[in-house]
Amino acid sequence: MRPLLVLCLGNEVLSDDAFGFRVAGMLGEMEYELGKEVEVIYASLAGFNLLNLLEGRKKVLIVDTIITGSAEPGTMHFFPMGKLIPSRNLTGSHEISLPTALKLAQLMEIETPEDIDVLAVEAQDVQTLSEEMTEPVKAALPEAIAYVKGWTIIGNQEISSDGYGEKKSASS
Question: Of the chain's two ends, which shows fewer C-beta atoms within 10 Å, N or C?
Fold first, then answer.
């Protein structure tokens, strides 16, 4: 198992919710650039169902959609897990949230990631049954790919320097 995971969430047939699916596809085409410590997975899961993918990882970057209503569609948001309930796929309507699932995993002595970061795009439409994303969200794909590449470079440096290198912003 590779220590760095880029976990792309969403649903490829719900318009902008396909953002994670598209990012995973683009990253899959450049796997050699990301480094041997990085694994990219697309999943249409939420909450407790994500624990099996997170178990035993050192660092995880979750790529997903979000609707805050305070930013224009296509705006990229980056935040560590726990700062806010981050995205629509980390909390399912019939499931527990990922932060709650992580607390439960710790009680069950399941090894969870030391760091979980979230990169989310402000979505315009996650309700329409369509394989097409809206233009603002589609236009955000290159920025997301650049961000993920920066995150993996920093993560690889931290892993190669015993896993506790200096923290830097992936956007700088």
Answer: C
- Per cent of the chain over pLDDT 70 is 82
Could you tell me whether strands 76-80 and 115-122 are parallel, antiparallel, or unpaired per DSSP bridges? Answer: antiparallel
Facing residues of 127 across strands?
none
Closest CA to 32 of 149, 139, 121: 149
The residue type at 13: V
Mean pLDDT (the chain, rounded): 84
- Strands laid side by side in the 115-122 sheet: 38-43, 4-9, 59-66, 115-122, 76-80
Q: In whole angstroms, how large is the CA radius of gyration of the chain?
A: 15
Distance CA 155, CA 60 (A): 9
Residue-wise pLDDT for 99-156, tens only, equals: 777 888 888 898 888 889 999 999 999 999 999 999 999 999 999 999 999 999 887 7
